[in-house]
Design goal:
alpha+beta, Alpha-Beta Plaits, 2 helices, 32% strand, binds copper (II) ion
Length: 65
């Protein structure tokens, strides 16, 4: 399981957007976003390039801390 810190989430809409962004990445599953902690955890079927994860998060309007 991987954990990333995400900046800029303020409500459940943000949680949904991040969950959708991460869940849409090939090989990523079981995404869980914790709003209070500002972090997301997920499983990787194989190692996913962090550059791709960063890009998807950015596209959704957030930043990886
Ligand atoms: Cu929000």
């Amino acid at each position: 399981m991987a954990t990333i810190q995400i900046k800029g989430m303020s409500c459940n809409h943000c949680v949904m957007a991040v969950t959708k962004a991460l869940g849409g990445i090939d090989g990523v599953s079981n995404v869980k976003v914790d709003l209070a902690k500002g972090e997301a955890t997920f499983d990787e079927a194989r190692p996913v390039d962090r550059v791709i994860i960063r890009e998807r998060i950015k596209k959704a309007g957030f930043e990886i801390a």
